């Protein structure tokens, strides 16, 4: 195995424990990675505002962050890479949503701003998780603003309604748009070119690091593309068995300092110098 020169990690279920706290063992290791000039990059479905406090807590806030599963990669205020949704396809899709169930909460994300046309039980739950507050404005206004690049939609509703919507989607009707379930009642929508795999490719090119010297760490199915791609793909001990089977390495769970242990063993140990 080539020496690791770049680490890209998921956040929820990976560096955060079940109480949504950053692993203190990982915090202690970050200065050692920085001494070796090994960037530690956070990649998540979260927004820039949702990632920034975690990056500061870790001490990696000077590095890029990959937001919305890679739809937007920023370094401070600078946009390094972005992949926006096709608004024509989104208008067609949202018309179908309104026809099926007008109670579904439609959340639109552009850069650091979260838009919704109303405040409901679902926005309140999401706000309590992320610490963000939506900007309330008509959906038509959000979609008609040509200067506004949409990086992600998040649809939340009753599980049965979200599952029904997902099953009715015809991918051929939306060739530039990708849909996936991040929870049973959470439907996420991004440009088809967006994935953590592509984010790793862009970050590796940005740092001029070959893929065989990249380590990726994650705990769920949306992490699999980057786990498969990297020279060293690591699955958390709390990951589903199907995810663990495709990783080169399975570390301990997020409750047992899994990321810190993997970095210590495969990046910082004397045999990997």
UniProtKB/TrEMBL annotation:
<dbReference type="GO" id="GO:0005829">
    <property type="term" value="C:cytosol"/>
</dbReference>
<dbReference type="GO" id="GO:0000287">
    <property type="term" value="F:magnesium ion binding"/>
</dbReference>
<dbReference type="GO" id="GO:0016791">
    <property type="term" value="F:phosphatase activity"/>
</dbReference>
<dbReference type="InterPro" id="IPR023214">
    <property type="entry name" value="HAD_sf"/>
</dbReference>
<protein>
    <submittedName>
        <fullName>Cof-like hydrolase</fullName>
    </submittedName>
</protein>
<dbReference type="Pfam" id="PF08282">
    <property type="entry name" value="Hydrolase_3"/>
</dbReference>
<keyword id="KW-0378">Hydrolase</keyword>
<dbReference type="InterPro" id="IPR006379">
    <property type="entry name" value="HAD-SF_hydro_IIB"/>
</dbReference>
<dbReference type="InterPro" id="IPR036412">
    <property type="entry name" value="HAD-like_sf"/>
</dbReference>
<dbReference type="InterPro" id="IPR000150">
    <property type="entry name" value="Cof"/>
</dbReference>
